[in-house]
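We both want to read discrete structure tokens more fluently, so let's practise on a single case. Would you supply a protein for us yourself, any chain you care to pick? Would you write everything just below, so we can both look at the same thing?
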Amino acid sequence: MAAAAAAALRAWFWNERFWLPHNVTWADLAGEAGPPGSGLQYPRASHVLSAFPLALGIFAVRLLFER
């Protein structure tokens, strides 16, 4: 019962009609960004994860040179 309620809440929250313009779907954002064959892609949430190791590396270099 709780799983069904959570699924209904998730479906309501991520409704395309609320978040996106009328002629765009979530599937449109999963593919290529430019013309077909251009190789351009929309950013994905996993791309943000690469920023954390980079930030830690920069912070470590800063600590190393400030001491």
Q: What stands out?
A: The chain has one domain: 2-66. The chain has a mean pLDDT of 87. Helices lie at 2-13, 16-19, 26-30, 45-48, 51-66.
